[in-house]
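Kindly draft a sequence, keeping tokens residue-aligned:
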Amino acid sequence: MNALNRIVMLLISLLLLAVPVLLLLVAFGVIAPQLAEQYTGYSAAVDFVGGLSVANIGSQALIIAAIIGVLVVLIAGFLLLRELTFGRVVARNTVVDDSPGAETLITAGAVRALSEGAAREVGATSPSVSLAQGHPEYEIYCGIGAPASSNYTELASRVRENIRKALESQNVPVKDVEVTVRKVAS
């Protein structure tokens, strides 16, 4: 994902968290409707929710509203956590040659494409590569499909070695290559 996609996803997830919480706080009288209207500017929704009271709403409607609110918060939290990277540094460009006047960078996308091609070369199907940046080496996680008649351990080992060999031939520093057989191709 590029930076713009990440920012959009982050804003959507924050809105999915903030709007239901604000509406629930107004509905239960924790925040005055006028204060929420002053900061948000959507008076029609605030007036509608501000007119609601616990006494006017039946118990079934309260339960349904609570369930919907919890689901929205869980979905927003999930979307937000997908954007945070715990423990892994997101891969960026790497210097493969730093000699003066001939500096060469390789992008994470190029490393990913090279790794997927190396996995296909030895018989893996539909490889999926994700990268993490160690300093200065890449950590490569590759999920592959395997033909039903193949030896999965041998195929994973060949994929691991071919990815390492392909990247090292391009002077890309590699810390670790982890290969997981995720599906069996028929």
The chain has a mean pLDDT of 81.
